[in-house]
Amino acid sequence: MERSGTSGAEAGSGPGAAAESGPGRLPPTAWAVLGILSFGEELTGYEVRRWADHILRFFYWSPAMSQIYRELKTLERAGYAASRVETAADGRPRRVYAITEDGVAALARWVAREDVGPPVFKNGTALRVWLGHLTTPDRLREVVTAYRDETERLGAQAEHSRSVAAEVPGWAHPELVARWAARYYESERALAEGMLADLAALDAPRLTS
């Protein structure tokens, strides 16, 4: 069945229309979805979500299905993705998406040119510790302990994703990022342990008075 979607030259209603949806205009989440398609498989929206949950969620984004479909439509309008309807194994129709040549070129330009930006330390547990004067030392320890345990759980999941990626041809770079994620959660666990020690030291004068 014929694909829907247009090339970059055909998208929009006149010269420059595709550029308005091109690099610098698309949200980062759209580039992330296009990146999933860049591995060469035709995917349904649900399958895009599964790919995101495999590795992308550890370092960037865990999207809702509504977000996935919104970004896929954005990419189609830009001419960076195309879709077609096929018949699934159970006989039902399903829409699958693939990256276009224009999409590959645009994504490569974005990877090469996009500013990296500074590291971001945005942490809800740290925010609660910052507001520790409004709660009890015991509650703060509970919060940080729960965070520490969660980093351990996520680290194990990231390591599992790394081991899966290691077995997939063409996934050398996703494996490296999954390894980075596992190391990140390992370091976060150590930082949480350090915070627990800091909280204990802060609370020591109260306990001895």
Could you explain how this protein is built, in words?
This is PadR family transcriptional regulator. The protein has two domains: 17-113, Winged helix-like DNA-binding domain superfamily/Winged helix DNA-binding domain (Arc Repressor Mutant, subunit A, Orthogonal Bundle), CATH 1.10.10.10; 124-208. Helix content is 62%, strand content 7%. 26% of the residues are buried. It is elongated, with a radius of gyration of 22 Å. It has helices at 17-20, 28-37, 45-59, 65-78, 101-113, 124-130, 137-165, 172-208; strands spanning 81-87, 93-99.
Fill in the keyword field for this structure.
209 residues, mainly alpha, Arc Repressor Mutant, subunit A, 2 domains, two-stranded antiparallel sheet, elongated, PadR family transcriptional regulator, Tscrpt_reg_PadR_N, WH_DNA-bd_sf
The name CATH uses for the topology of the largest domain is Arc Repressor Mutant, subunit A
From the spread of the alpha carbons, the general shape counts as elongated
Q: In sequence order, what are the helices and strands, one letter per element?
A: HHHHEEHHHH
Order of strands across the main sheet: 1-2
Q: From the coordinates shown, what is the CATH architecture of the largest domain?
A: Orthogonal Bundle
Number of strands: 2
Strand content of the residues, in percent? 5-15%
The class by helix and strand makeup works out as: mainly alpha
Q: What's the number of helices?
A: 8
CATH class of the largest domain: Mainly Alpha
Write the topology of this structure.
Layout: H1 17-20, H2 28-37, H3 45-59, H4 65-78, E1 81-87, E2 93-99, H5 101-113, H6 124-130, H7 137-165, H8 172-208
Antiparallel strand pairs: 1-2
Helix pairs in contact: 2-3, 2-4, 3-4, 7-8
